[in-house]
Amino acid sequence: MNQGRPFVYADARLKCDGVDVAELAEQFGTPLYVYSANQIAERAGLFQTAFAGVSHTVCYAVKANSSLAILKMLAAQGCGFDIVSGGELARVLAAGGRDVASRVVFSGVGKTAAEMDEALDAEILQFNVESEPELELLAARAAAKGKRARIALRVNPDVSAETHPYISTGLSAHKFGIGIKLARAVYTRAAAMPSIETTGVSVHIGSQIRQVEPFAEALAKTLALVAELRSDGHQIRYVDAGGGLGIEYADKDFDAAEQVAHYAAALKSALGSMDVHLLLEPGRFLVGQAGALITRVLYRKQNGDKKFVIVDAGMNDLIRPALYQAHHEIVPVVTREGSLDEEADIVGPVCESGDFFARARTLPVSEDGDLLAVLDAGAYGLSLSSNYNTRLRPAEVLVESTGARLVRRRETYEELFAPEMP
Ligand SMILES: Cc1ncc(COP(=O)(O)O)c(C=O)c1O
Ligand SMILES: N[C@@H](CCCC[NH3+])C(=O)O
């Protein structure tokens, strides 16, 4: 049970980079997210090394895990950021300082005027514009500030990639981007806008994609457009290849270094000798396997033939199983010698039948009070969490070379009520 995960057993106890997970749960309570700083830095380093031969910037997709502590680490490692909201912009500036804005790209189909203003004020590297009305609004906001907005159009390449339908984005059936065939005409329009500078082209075909061919196909189509745009006189420098590189959630071997190398080789081969600055937007790949959600067994029960293990974390803390039927490995934090296996549903306390972490999963029989670790929960875990059922979201601990540190304390009830005016 490793596959490149930082969570390994020593003396029957789960450790994260040598730190005892059960002790963290005692100290900080559960549910608790625990992350390995080392693995995040290592994964970002793998990306940077794999693309070392080409001019590039790794712009971490903040939505995967927006912890300030993680953003700060990645900023210090030279990463830029892919943001999708004013809130994410505020986070990266808070974590990395104002200078980091020169490495920030802003994606998303629904940017508001206020968010555009914030990003224009911060002087981010580039807006990835997803529609003509958005382009018009951005041109107006930039003009009002006497600025020029650097833009890439996010093109929709109509490339199919095998992943869950909710997280596939590169087909014309999806809301994302501008159809690649229409893009050239939109660039011509954009270039005629005095407050717009056409500096790039971007593409992103979806998330949790394990094959590299669709990425290469999308990039090749994008580069063909870049050639046309250059011949039309646009000074295209940035090609944003998006994110989406998948990880292994099942209990199989996974060699992250090999996966990135394979991905980089495919993109480089599509790139050929073309002179561009490549932007890469990995999210999950950097943080997914670095994190686990630690939860405590509250009760066990049986309805008919079915056994349930009820834990103190719920779908509000980690929604991936409920939303995408996503598989997460679940393991005991402390193993018991000679314990038998049983088949059970691992479920949370939330009042929804969809509140499960695993169904009909074979696991060692647990007892009330035992700790379980839901693995590979570092991406789209806390960042996709909610306070549904007025539940306090988990605390977060970052395990660094100097030891474990609380990087987000548990919320309080008062904080949840604070914005309300009864
Ligand atoms: C524009 C964009 N870039 C990057 C990402 C990051 O994706 P992933 O976490 O799959 O790498 C996403 C999410 O799919 C995205 O929408
Ligand atoms: N939230 C999804 C990924 C979405 C990617 C967003 N662009 C997941 O947990 O797998």
Structure commentary:
By secondary structure, the chain is of the alpha/beta class. It folds into two domains: 7-36 and 289-417, Lyase, Ornithine Decarboxylase, Chain A, domain 1, CATH 2.40.37.10; 107-282, Alanine racemase (TIM Barrel), CATH 3.20.20. The chain contains twelve helices and 21 strands. The strands form three sheets. Strands 4, 14, 15, 16, 17, 18, 19, 20 and 21 form a nine-stranded mixed β-sheet that branches. An eight-stranded parallel beta barrel has the order 5-6-7-8-9-11-12-13, surrounded by five helices. It has a three-stranded antiparallel β-sheet with strand order 1-2-3. Helix 2 (37-50) runs parallel beside helix 9 (256-271), helix 7 (180-191) runs parallel beside helix 8 and helix 8 packs parallel to helix 9. It is globular. It binds pyridoxal-5'-phosphate and lysine. Residues 61, 64, 82, 107, 204, 207-208, 242-245, 281-285, 379 line the site of pyridoxal-5'-phosphate. The site of lysine (LYS) has 8 residues, from helix 11.
Quick structural gist:
The protein has helices spanning 21-28, 37-50, 68-76, 86-96, 113-122, 132-144, 180-191, 213-231, 256-271, 284-287, 320-324, 413-417, and strands at 7-10, 13-16, 19-20, 32-36, 56-61, 80-83, 104-106, 126-129, 149-156, 178-179, 196-203, 238-240, 277-280, 291-303, 306-311, 330-332, 341-347, 356-364, 371-374, 395-400, 403-408.
